[in-house]
Amino acid sequence: MTLSSKEVSNRQLRSPFFIELMLIIFLVEFMKGSLLVSLLPIYMKNSLGLTAWSVGVAFSLQYVGDNLFRSPFGWLAERLGYKKIMSGALLMTVIAVVIIAFTSAPVWLAIACLILGIGTSPLWPCAMTGVTEISGPNNSNGTAIGALEMASLMGIGAGPIAMNFLMQRTGSNYHTSFLVLIGCGIVLVLVALLLPGKAKSANLHTTVEVVRHANIFLLIKAKIVLLIKSVKKTLYEVKHTLNVSWLVYPALFLQSFVIGILTPVITLYVQNELGFSPNMYSLLLIAGGGITVIALIPCGKLIDRFGTAPFLHCGFLLAAVSISIFSMVHSVPLVFTFVALIGISYAFILPGWNTYVSHLVPKGERGAVWGFFLTLQGSGMVVGPIVSGRLWDVMGHEAPFIASSVVMVILFVVHLLLTRKSQPKIKVIS
Question: 273: helix, coil or strand?
Fold first, then answer.
């Protein structure tokens, strides 16, 4: 009996594994949103009296740790299982928050941010690999990816809002907020322990049986030999099975680079140029993020049915137009209108792009390839803020938004070329 794409998607969304992934993604993004948006900038600069340069270095190390370790952790997850990798890594996030809460030296805070990045690095490689593994026979995972993106955006939005509320109620008691985040981290580790493990490979099992009665040095040597063979096999399979256009690689970078351009200047623009109060700015974030979250699931379902191409084409063009005009309007209704359009465009782009990329990943080395793709994609978040700050200082407040619009147009052109070269057969007939 063949299941329809709708039945496959419903089974995905109801499976304990997928629910655990959604909860982990929500809590991780809740913690990162709380720390990186609400707590750390104010805590490090105003409370500890550190320079803006120290804050920037700490944040950069978080992105570096997150990106550098995605591919290794994705590779390890397929061999050791999600449970060991995710629980061990998420325990590092708890350690990072403890260091931040109980130390004040800049070097320790920078180290803590690096540990935080490393601890969260296996999240998306494991999540995307897991979704790819549980997708149906037609690889209909747009709905599942949309659900994961929704959990991520909800966490990113809920974290700063909850921390701002908590800080107001406790009179800016940072340690209370840090204790709450430590509690969230402990819950994360407990949920990660519920994730499935990975059965040992036949080769490893055989080797262990052979050397069971040998001394410990022979056992260690055998495992090292197996590890080297496994790495060589992985590199060989990735090289010979990853058959994608070279245009995919700059597109992966630009996908996050465009977000990195906007991230550091949105607050400056809204508060300094538009004169919005913090409460009005929070309302603007809730409006834009809420529209994106609401639209993600239906967009994911439509992507499963009609394919990614029309949604990515529309999403890139809509984002390019909306972002450029957003930087030129000052009327409150118009500002909210274009924020809503930007939210809709990202509801098209986020599940559409990840679904498109998921069809480029070979079955043999999903974890390693997803890690590589996500590392390349995440590197844009490291470069984007640097370019954005320079554009703001040299060319004015409109320059980062115009640059972001130009990048969106480039992404549209690149994706148009990719789809014309080889359109993936991902359309699913219910």
Answer: helix
Say if residue 314 is exposed, middle or buried (CB neighbours under 10 Å; 0-12, 13-18, 19+). middle
Other Cβ atoms within 10 Å of 247 Cβ, number: 14
Q: The whole model's pTM is what? A: 0.63
Do 406 and 279 meet the contact criterion of CB atoms below 8 Å apart? Answer: no
Which residues make Cβ contacts (< 8 Å) with residue 156, sequence separation at least 6?
29, 30, 32, 33, 37, 289
Q: What is the pLDDT of residues 18-33, one digit of tens each?
A: 888 889 999 999 998 8
- Answer whether 139's CB lies under 8 Å from 95's CB: no
Residue 57: name the closest of 108, 120, 101 by CA.
108
**Residue matched to tokens 């747009």:** 142
Confidence at residue 425, expressed as pLDDT on a 0 to 100 scale: 45
Instruction: Dig out the tokens for 115 from the structure.
Output: 């540990």
pLDDT by residue (tens digit) across 276-321? 766 676 778 788 878 887 887 788 788 878 888 888 999 999 999 9
Handedness of CA 358, 354, 13, 24 (dihedral sign): positive
Is residue 348 within 8 A of residue 314, CB to CB? The reply is yes
Distances from the Cα of 191 to the Cα of 19, 65, 417, angstroms? 10, 23, 42
Are the C-beta atoms of residues 252 and 376 closer than 8 Å to each other?
yes
Q: Which residues of 164-185 are buried (b: 16+ CB within 10 A; e: fewer)?
A: bebbeeeeeebeebbebbbebb
- The Cα–Cα gap between 316 and 415 comes to 9
**Cα(261)–Cα(398) distance, integer angstroms:** 12
- Residue in 308, 348, 340 with CA at minimum distance from that of residue 322: 340
Can you spell out the DSSP letters for 309-367? HHHHHHHHHHHHHHHHHHTT---HHHHHHHHHHHHHHHHHHHHHHHHHHHTTS-STTHH
Query: Amino acid identity, residue 427?
Result: K
